[in-house]
């Protein structure tokens, strides 16, 4: 007898862990389009979902996949899609729709080298800013970034939960390394997995305002077919869901969309700290790059350098408070990432010039190495001694 | 609805002037010249007695502004 | 009757946004009468639309309504229908919406034969943006983006739908509003992908520029140019050249997508012993 959740230690690929996590969180609908290096997610969903009474569909393109996921979610079924690079670009239009109409859904982007077709099989972290600002308009979004196979499982669950709780598209930003890596993982038992369901209206249909928020800024959501007949649109809409061009309504809608996320940063934002207590040099790194960074910190410590690691698990909203707090006590921050400094700019913004920030960047389609991060740490330590 | 029978019936014409955009389709399609546009360019019932209840005005009104209620 | 139709409208949203003489309201009324005739539970009825003048129709209806992105209505609707096959799903699109930006979704929804009823408001133009040519603008006609006349050939929606695998294809004009209503009823009853093309007038964005007169005159033009399927059978291609063939154009048999997926579920559960 198979259960919803794998309950034992096993060797698992990152993409596979995403599938198991999503299923454990209650995802029962997947729409997607094949693209390297995310395709295993679609293949496994096609196998696993119907066995659980769920639905899988391979759509005609990435745009349609995103649309179908939103449709399914609106019909009351938790839904997820996965893609990479060019496919993520295509999904942006309807990610914006999900943000505007507040439809819970999860988008997995297993990053590959870009721009354009780039190197489909090579890892990169070039979509950090696209994950934040990919769709047009001043929209809020939540982006989570796993650094291990086990974390891919856990963050898939968390991504689904956050999307349901805040009615927002959540992006699980992987990279090719994490997606294709195999690790031995021990996963929590099904009953230990916290599953969050979207808030439902408690009023009669005639009293239902589909976009009237509760105290948390999130409106309760009725599914299509439940007797609450209402209108959903990507146009600016009032609390009834009706389109309007009223400047006041437009402004208060956009501010609420932000507030429902930014008022809950303690819940949404998480980071992992490693050896930070007395660190003088801190590396900020996420995803696959954080694995190299952790080893570099260990090696630096072994060589007597007080190094530490801050790993944003939530990269958007950016953990501004946590990074700003570093500025007060470390000598220097090194941001190690597989792009030309996309998150480094955010770190600089957070520390406001109070501490030096430099980057270790790699954009050749290979994983950033611990040696190059270690050598950057050594350089900073040496400068400090001579200074 | 367009079933014109010999049985006695009463035809009631419902007009929603506020929804009417004055396109004149109902006026032109009415076979009995029951309708007209008034001074403000909206539909008006001028010959109610001549209405047979055929419903052509209602199904061709783009504005949901006119309706025929037939009671047999 | 208007009172029955009105019971399915969000009356507080009226008067609607469409121009005087625009045929979209006639199509919308036919749809409402069709749903009334079908006897569908409003709570279980879903209307999905794309972007453009016609797609504003969804917001006027007291069903579960979803006004999506340009061209994507069928993809959203596919997600809804697959997730909850018990819902009755209508999809309202314009001609540019369905066959230009949404062309890919259109042929694939047809190929899957998923149980959706698609109604294409064909006014031969992009109305909302002010009169640009669409894939349904006939050759030679003028548009703001075809000031010297349109040099592109237009799609035949019905042939496109049939070729792509739709199992019910029909066409009517807004002049033939009762026929339109009956065709929508028959399309909805078809277990599969149904396409009903509704020829409708855009007097402001298309008629004026092409000297076709106002909404009324365009409606009468439809009357003069429409021939029924039966009449068309006896006419030569030359005689049919500027005619619109109306009625049921194609009925086919094919497995329906959500029913097939149910079989996938049964197979998967048997294999995994669930």
UniProtKB/TrEMBL annotation, chain A:
InterPro entries: 2-oxoacid_oxidoreductase, PFOR_II, Pyrv_Fd/Flavodoxin_OxRdtase_N, THDP-binding, Transketo_C/PFOR_II. It comes from the Bacteria. The keyword Oxidoreductase applies. Keywords: Oxidoreductase. Residues 279-373 form the Pyruvate:ferredoxin oxidoreductase core domain. Residues 20-247 form the Pyruvate flavodoxin/ferredoxin oxidoreductase pyrimidine binding domain. The keyword Oxidoreductase applies. It holds the Pfam family POR_N. SUPFAM superfamilies: Thiamin diphosphate-binding fold (THDP-binding), TK C-terminal domain-like. GO terms for molecular function: oxidoreductase activity. This is 2-oxoglutarate ferredoxin oxidoreductase subunit alpha. It comes from Desulfofundulus australicus DSM 11792.
UniProtKB/TrEMBL annotation, chain B:
The keyword Cytoplasm does not apply. GO terms for molecular function: iron-sulfur cluster binding; metal ion binding. The keyword Iron-sulfur applies. Signal peptide: none annotated. Residues 11-40, 42-71 form the 4Fe-4S ferredoxin-type domain. It comes from the Bacteria. Transmembrane segments: none annotated. Pfam families: Fer4_7. Keywords: Iron, Iron-sulfur, Metal-binding. This is 2-oxoglutarate ferredoxin oxidoreductase subunit delta. It comes from Desulfofundulus australicus DSM 11792. The lineage of its organism: Bacteria, Bacillati, Bacillota, Clostridia, Eubacteriales.
TrEMBL record, chain C:
CDD domains: TPP_OGFOR. InterPro entries: 2-oxoacid:Fd_oxidoreductase, THDP-binding, TPP_enzyme_TPP-bd. The keyword Oxidoreductase applies. Keywords: Oxidoreductase. It comes from the Bacteria. Residues 51-197 form the Thiamine pyrophosphate enzyme TPP-binding domain. GO terms for biological process: cellular respiration. It holds the Pfam family TPP_enzyme_C. One of its GO terms (molecular function) is oxidoreductase activity, acting on the aldehyde or oxo group of donors, iron-sulfur protein as acceptor. The keyword ATP-binding does not apply. This is 2-oxoglutarate ferredoxin oxidoreductase subunit beta.
């Amino acid at each position: 007898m198979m259960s919803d959740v794998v309950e034992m230690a096993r060797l698992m690929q990152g993409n596979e862990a995403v599938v198991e996590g999503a299923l454990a969180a209650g995802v029962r609908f997947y729409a997607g389009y094949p693209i390297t290096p995310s395709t295993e997610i679609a293949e496994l969903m096609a196998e696993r979902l119907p066995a659980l009474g769920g639905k899988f569909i391979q759509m005609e393109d990435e745009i349609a996949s995103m649309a179908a996921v939103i449709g399914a979610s609106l019909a009351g079924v938790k839904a997820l899609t996965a893609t990479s690079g060019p496919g993520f670009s295509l999904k942006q239009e309807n990610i914006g729709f999900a943000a505007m109409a507040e439809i819970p859904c999860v988008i997995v982007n297993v990053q590959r080298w870009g721009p354009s077709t780039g190197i489909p099989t090579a890892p990169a972290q070039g979509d950090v800013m696209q994950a934040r600002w990919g769709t047009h308009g001043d929209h809020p979004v939540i982006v989570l970034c796993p650094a291990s196979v086990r974390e891919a499982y856990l963050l898939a669950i968390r991504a689904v939960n956050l999307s349901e709780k805040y009615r927002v598209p959540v992006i699980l930003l992987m990279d090719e390394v994490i997606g294709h890596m195999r690790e031995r993982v021990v996963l929590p038992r099904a009953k230990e997995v916290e599953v969050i369901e979207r808030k439902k209206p408690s009023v009669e249909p005639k009293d239902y305002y589909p976009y009237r928020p509760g105290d948390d800024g999130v409106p309760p959501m009725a599914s299509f077919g439940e007797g609450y007949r209402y209108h959903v649109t990507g146009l600016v809409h009032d609390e009834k869901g009706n389109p309007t061009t009223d400047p006041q309504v437009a402004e208060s809608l956009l501010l609420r969309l932000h507030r429902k996320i930014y008022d809950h940063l303690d819940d949404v934002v998480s980071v992992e700290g490693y050896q930070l207590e007395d660190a003088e040099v801190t590396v900020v790194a996420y995803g696959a790059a954080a694995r190299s960074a952790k080893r570099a910190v260990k090696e630096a410590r072994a060589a007597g350098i007080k190094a530490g690691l801050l790993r944003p698990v939530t990269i958007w909203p950016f953990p501004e408070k946590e990074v700003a707090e570093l500025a007060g006590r470390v000598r220097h921050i090194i941001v190690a990432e597989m792009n030309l400094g996309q998150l480094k700019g955010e770190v600089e913004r957070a520390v406001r010039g109070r501490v030096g920030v430099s980057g270790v960047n790699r954009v050749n389609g290979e994983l950033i190495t611990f040696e190059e991060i270690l050598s950057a740490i050594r350089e900073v330590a040496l400068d400090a001694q001579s200074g | 609805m367009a079933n014109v029978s010999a049985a006695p019936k009463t035809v009631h014409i419902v007009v929603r002037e506020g929804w009417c955009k004055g396109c004149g389709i109902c006026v032109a399609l009415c076979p009995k010249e029951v309708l007209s546009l008034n001074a403000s360019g909206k539909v008006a019932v001028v010959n109610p007695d001549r209405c047979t209840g055929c419903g052509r005005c209602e199904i061709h009104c783009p504005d949901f502004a006119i309706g025929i209620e037939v009671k047999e | 009757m208007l009172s029955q139709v009105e019971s399915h409208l969000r009356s507080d949203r009226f008067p609607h946004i469409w121009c005087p003489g625009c045929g979209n309201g006639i199509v919308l009324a036919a749809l409402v009468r069709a749903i009334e005739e079908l006897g569908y539970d409003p709570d279980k009825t879903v209307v999905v639309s794309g972007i453009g003048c016609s797609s504003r129709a969804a917001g006027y209806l007291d069903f579960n309504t979803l006004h999506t992105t340009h061209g994507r209505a069928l993809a959203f609707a596919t997600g809804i229908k697959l997730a909850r096959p018990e819902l009755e799903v209508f999809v309202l699109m314009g001609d540019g919406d369905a066959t230009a930006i949404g062309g890919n979704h259109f042929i694939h929804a047809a190929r899957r034969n998923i149980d959706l009823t698609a109604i294409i408001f064909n006014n031969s133009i992009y109305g909302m943006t002010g009169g640009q040519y669409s894939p349904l603008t006939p050759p030679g006609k003028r548009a703001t983006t075809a000031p010297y006349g349109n040099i592109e050939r237009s799609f035949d929606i019905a042939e496109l739908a049939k070729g792509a695998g739709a199992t019910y294809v029909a066409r009517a004009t807004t002049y033939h509003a009762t026929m339109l209503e009956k065709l929508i009823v028959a399309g909805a009853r078809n277990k599969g992908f149904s396409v009903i093309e509704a020829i409708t007038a855009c007097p402001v964005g298309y008629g004026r520029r092409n000297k076709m007169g106002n909404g009324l005159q365009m409606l009468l033009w439809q009357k003069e140019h429409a021939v029924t399927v039966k009449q068309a059978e006896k006419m030569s291609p030359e005689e049919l050249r500027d005619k619109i063939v109306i009625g049921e154009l194609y009925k086919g048999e094919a497995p329906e997508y959500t029913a097939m997926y149910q079989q996938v579920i049964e197979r998967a559960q048997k294999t995994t012993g669930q």
